[in-house]
């Protein structure tokens, strides 16, 4: 797997990551969602540099401007509910993408002994020969990402796969690196060292779904 950890090169992205982690700032759920969206836009921009581009002429009122445009048929798939703001950010840039949504949650929330991933809802167009972008903001164990990909298999074989996450734990990054093909890309804004015994990323930011959508 090609791992692109954007925080290795300090940029304005660090400011947005700092804000979503900061317990005094993250309480503002509108700002939290907007920051995740902004991170999605930056990750999308970086990802776009690896897409397939072809020459294109644009007729302006005064002449012809030569450029290159990407020609990928993109399907953007996100995991409900925490994935929604990240999905919005990616969709701001890949505005012609088809969209897929899946609900996947950790059984753990109901049964503390279990880390099993439960998939209940799935809406997805054909993935055959398309560019699949699979977005999950918190890559903790990596199991949701892998369970989602398994659930998407009946929809066809994508030409290429890009995984997009905001914060990951090293364990989750290693897990997806083993589960996906070597030519899969992971675009991630930060990677933390550890997980706690409940599967939360440490230091991470807490529960991204609760921060974005209430349940304080
Ligand atoms: N999901 C979250 O929202 N936070 C974590 O730390 C791990 C998974």
Protein architecture, described:
- This protein has 216 residues and is α/β, with parallel strands linked by helices.
- It has a single domain, classed as 3-Layer(aba) Sandwich (Rossmann fold).
- 31% of the residues lie in helices and 33% in strands.
- The protein is built from 6 helices and 12 strands.
- It has helices at residues 13-21, 29-48, 83-93, 143-152, 170-179, 208-213, and strands at 2-5, 53-60, 63-70, 74-80, 98-106, 117-123, 131-135, 138-139, 160-169, 185-192, 194-195, 201-202.
- The strands form 3 sheets. Strands 1, 4, 5, 6, 7, 8, 9 and 10 form an 8-stranded mixed sheet that branches.
- Helix 1 (13-21) runs antiparallel to helix 2 (29-48) and helix 2 packs across helix 3.
- The radius of gyration is 18 Å and the shape is globular.
- The termini are far apart.
- The structure holds uracil.
- Uracil binds at residues 82, 138, 140, 200-201, 204, 207-209.
- Uracil is lined by residues 82, 138, 140, 200-201, 204, 207-209.
* CATH-defined topology: Rossmann fold
Q: What compounds are bound to the protein?
A: uracil
Specify the oligomeric state. single chain
Shape: globular
Question: What is the tally of helical segments?
Answer: 6
Mean pLDDT: 95
Identify low-pLDDT runs: none
Instruction: Give the C-level CATH assignment.
Output: Alpha Beta
Q: How big is the Rg?
A: 18 Å
């Amino acid at each position: 797997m090609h791992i692109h950890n954007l925080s290795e090169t300090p940029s304005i992205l660090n400011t947005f990551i700092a804000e979503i982690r900061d317990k005094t700032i993250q309480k503002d759920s509108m700002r939290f969602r907007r920051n995740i969206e902004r991170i999605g836009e930056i990750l999308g921009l970086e990802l776009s540099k690896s897409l397939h581009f072809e020459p294109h002429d644009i007729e302006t009122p005064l002449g012809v401007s030569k450029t290159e445009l990407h020609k990928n048929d993109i399907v953007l798939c996100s995991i409900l509910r925490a994935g929604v703001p990240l999905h919005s950010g990616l969709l701001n840039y890949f505005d012609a993408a088809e969209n897929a949504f899946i609900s996947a949650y950790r059984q753990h929330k109901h049964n503390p002994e279990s880390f099993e991933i439960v998939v209940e809802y799935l809406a997805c167009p054909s993935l055959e020969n398309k560019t699949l972008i699979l977005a999950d903001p918190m890559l903790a164990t990596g199991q949701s990402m892998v369970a989602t990909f398994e659930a998407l298999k009946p929809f066809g074989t994508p030409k290429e796969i890009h995984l997009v996450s905001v914060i990951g734990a090293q364990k989750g990054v290693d897990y997806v690196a083993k589960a996906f093909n070597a030519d899969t890309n992971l675009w991630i804004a930060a990677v933390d060292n550890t997980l706690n015994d409940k599967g939360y990323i440490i230091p991470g930011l807490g529960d991204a779904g609760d921060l974005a959508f209430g349940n304080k």
